[in-house]
Design brief:
By secondary structure, the protein is of the alpha/beta class. It has helices at residues 14-28, 38-42, 46-49, 64-72, 88-96, 106-114, 141-149, 173-182, 195-200, 331-338, 342-347; strands at residues 9-13, 32-36, 58-61, 78-81, 100-103, 121-126, 154-160, 190-191, 208-209, 235-247, 265-270, 287-290, 293-296, 306-309, 321-325, 354-358. The structure holds pyridoxal-5'-phosphate (PLP). Pyridoxal-5'-phosphate is lined by residues 36, 38, 82, 162, 194-195, 210-213, 220.
């Protein structure tokens, strides 16, 4: 009997996350791993995924409240704030909770020099090597290191950069050379690589790597699938068909004149829409899986529903399981069809979606 409650869930597979963390370890060998869990662990739920991150030496977040929440969960390893601090007032709390910070501009150095903290801080001085977002310029690195070193608020110094183009084969060569030169003669540990950097430059990624995306089982490299990199998707967005209808040839489906049937067509209606985080920009033909088979998106995504062509899946009926992305349908593919990046889809699943955590395999959906 079909169930009539809305069956949309984001299934979070912690075994896959552990596996992906092991993959990072294989790539970087000696380096420490600081797992990037900003934006609520890329939309997976920070405290939900925490049990699977025991293999990392530390965690990196953007948000101070997230770091504090981790300390309250008795997380005792290194925590790093990726954008550092925004005001002097935050420094006390940062210091109290033993949180490391990124320092990326002179103004922050000046504040640190004035600050009187009970416990001094671990600092990652971020150098701009060509991304031109955050970071001090390479030629002021030595001077700022000297000042930070002399500062009573600073316990330990690290050097860091972020690669804006590590996903392309040649994109990181110039930044890596700039970083190397800026750091010459400075005796501090280094942190360079994100996921793309870990996969491409495992040997030069630095003493502390900062992978995010690959932990969640998504390929950061355009020419390689997650499967070919032996990464397993952590989030699977699953739903069900809530209605099925036969539509004659030449009819429109959904809002506007986006999809018109070319033949007598069986349309399946899926309980998932843009208010759940499915991209409204997904085009006709975007792959969706119904009862284990590919069913192309047919028509514009609605707020609460989307429609798929199930003509070639005669066994599909009300209650048939639907996979929007995840284990069996890479989120990269859906993102590509929607003209967005996979990061955005993972981070964009809304609070209306029920999250379930599993250790292995998949949630059992009855056919
Ligand atoms: C987000 C972020 C990362 C992780 O990047 P991925 O591409 O997700 O691996 C690493 N370092 C910094 C500074 C970041 O902001």
């Amino acid at each position: 009997m079909p169930s009539f409650s809305r069956q949309l869930v984001a299934q979070i597979n912690l075994a896959a996350l552990r596996h992906n963390l092991d993959r990072v370890r294989q790539c970087v060998q000696g380096a420490q791993i600081m797992a990037v869990v900003k934006a609520d662990a890329y939309g997976h739920g920070l405290l939900r995924v925490l049990p699977a991150l025991g293999g990392a030496e530390g965690l990196a977040v953007m948000e101070l409240p997230a770091a504090v929440a981790l300390r309250e969960q008795r997380y005792t390893r290194r925590l790093l704030l990726l954008e550092g601090f925004f005001s002097e007032e935050e420094l006390k709390e940062i210091s109290h909770h033993r949180i490391a910070i990124v320092v990326h501009q002179r103004e922050q150095v000046a504040v640190l020099e004035k600050a009187r903290l009970k416990r001094s801080l671990e600092i990652f001085l971020k150098i701009n090597t060509g991304m031109n977002r955050l970071g001090v310029s390479p030629d002021e690195t030595a001077e700022l290191c000297e000042r930070l070193n002399a500062c009573s608020s600073v316990a330990a110094l690290r050097l860091m950069t972020h690669l804006g183009q590590a996903e392309t084969a040649a994109g990181a060569e110039a930044p890596l050379a700039i970083f190397k030169e800026a750091c010459q003669g400075l005796p501090y540990p280094r942190s360079i690589a994100n996921s793309a950097g870990v996969l491409r430059y495992g040997d030069v990624g630095g003493d502390v790597v900062r992978p995010g995306l690959m932990l969640y089982g998504v390929s950061p490299l355009p020419e390689q699938t997650a499967a070919s990199l032996d990464l397993q998707p952590v989030m699977s967005l699953r739903s069900e068909l809530i209605a099925v209808r036969e539509v004659e040839a030449g009819q429109y489906v959904g809002y506007g004149e986006v999809f018109r049937t070319a033949r007598p067509t069986r349309i399946g209606v899926v309980a998932c829409g843009y208010a759940d985080g499915y991209p409204v920009t997904a085009r006709n033909g975007t792959p969706v899986r119904v009862a284990g088979k590919e069913a192309p998106l047919a028509g514009r995504v609605s707020m609460d529903m989307l429609t798929v062509d199930i003509t070639d899946i005669p066994e599909a009926r009300i209650g048939s399981p639907v996979l929007l992305w995840g284990d069996g349908l890479p989120v990269e593919e859906v993102a590509h069809w929607a003209g967005v990046i996979p990061y955005q889809l993972l981070c964009g699943v809304t609070s209306r979606v029920r999250f379930v955590t599993t250790e292995v395999g998949r949630v059992d959906f009855e056919l």
